[in-house]
Design a protein that fits this description.
two-stranded antiparallel ribbon; Bact_2-comp_sensor_kinase; single chain; alpha+beta; Heat Shock Protein 90; 2 domains; five-stranded mixed sheet
Length: about 350
């Protein structure tokens, strides 16, 4: 009877003290709306990515081509105007991108009005400087600098508007989106299974039960904390190890995990909670439906100056229930938002093995 009372007291203590202190208000507490950011996210000024540069170059070329087609008497005359316009627009664009990239931390600390003003002024100054340079090279007033300066400011505003929308896509705008994101990260039945496992271990192996609850608390701490733009691959590996430690308790000898980690790859920057959904996917579709269990292999390495992450899991002979693929789509989209075309995400199935490979810059 005393043991039952102690167990009940332990469960009450976890329910009444630990969980509220870890997660804040209970389920019935109203959600506090997140305030809209008073300034543009810092990611909007990260114009150093190859993908951003390529898109900006194509956009400027398009603007020059469309702007010079009006009034051109012939195709040859139009192509000549495009060449002259590009000789000003491309150096101006490169100068603007370099300045914004170098000053991105300073620009991110300004108010929104000052951010827009700075971006437009820099665009106008870059275009004006490029026009004056072209004028000095031609040796005659082939064109004035005021027109290109005004056009440069307008183009800079258009590019920054796109970068602003692109950066804000990384951050949920309201509580509903935030809760949906949390739900997709850690499935409810994983929480129930983990708590049931911990309750079973409380009397049989209290130390192990404490370890399971600590791992679970760390997973939820990361899941409900404010979104960081990026974390290191080492941090993601540590979190994935905690998740698999929990599942190891539940599946026992059915789950075999092999790690092959390169310390040099650990400094790569990746979106938060990148690996946990992937290893959870491997457990759900590779280990859980198989009576004999299976193997999950996680490998990190450096190749050609980039970090490569490979996750492979065995697949049972009988196909398990098909998934929606939301976890894979979510990871791919967040990689694209952080690294643009510099990141790669590939999935494939080789007979009885499902593989995921991620490549990110160091």
């Amino acid at each position: 009877m005393r043991d039952d009372n102690d167990a009940a007291a332990l469960r009450a203590r976890h329910a009444g003290v630990t969980l509220p202190s870890e997660f804040g208000a209970g389920p019935s507490a109203p959600a506090t709306p997140r305030r809209a950011p008073s300034r543009t996210p810092a990611a909007a000024f990260d114009v150093c990515h190859v993908g951003v540069v390529l898109r900006a170059v194509l956009f400027v070329h398009g603007v020059v081509a469309i702007g010079t087609v009006f009034g051109a008497p012939s195709v040859d005359a139009w192509l000549g105007r495009v060449a002259i316009g590009a000789s000003v627009a491309l150096p101006a664009l490169v100068l603007w991108l370099l300045v914004v990239c170098a000053c991105r931390n300073l620009l991110a600390r300004l108010t929104m009005a000052l951010q827009w003003s700075a971006v437009i002024v820099l665009g106008a100054a870059s275009a004006g400087a490029a026009a004056l340079l072209a004028l000095s090279l031609h040796g005659e007033a082939a064109f004035e600098w005021t027109g290109p300066a005004l056009a440069g400011g307008a183009v800079a505003a258009a590019i920054f508007a796109w970068l602003d929308l692109r950066a804000k896509a990384q951050f949920p705008a309201d509580t509903t989106a935030r809760l949906a994101e949390l739900q997709s990260r850690i499935r409810p039945h994983f929480l129930f299974n983990t708590l049931n496992t911990a309750l079973t271990l409380v009397r049989l192996d209290p130390a192990r039960a404490e370890g399971v609850l600590e791992d679970l608390a760390e997973l939820f701490r990361v899941a409900i904390s404010d979104n960081a733009e990026s974390v290191t691959l080492d941090e993601e590996v540590a979190l994935a190890q905690r998740y698999l430690d929990i599942e190891q308790v539940r599946f026992g000898s059915r789950l075999h995990v092999n790690w092959e980690l390169d310390p040099e790859a650990g400094r790569a920057r990746v979106p938060p909670l990148l690996l946990q959904p992937l290893v959870e996917n491997a457990v759900r579709h590779g280990i859980e439906p198989s009576p004999d269990g299976g193997v999950i292999r996680i490998r990190t390495r450096v190749k050609l100056g980039r970090a490569v992450v490979s996750i492979a899991n065995s697949v049972p002979d009988e196909a398990s229930r098909p998934g929606s693929g939301m976890a894979l789509k979510n990871v791919k989209e967040r990689l694209r938002l952080l690294h643009d075309v510099a990141a790669q995400f590939e999935t494939r199935r080789d007979f009885d093995v499902f593989r995921v490979q991620i490549v990110v810059p160091l």
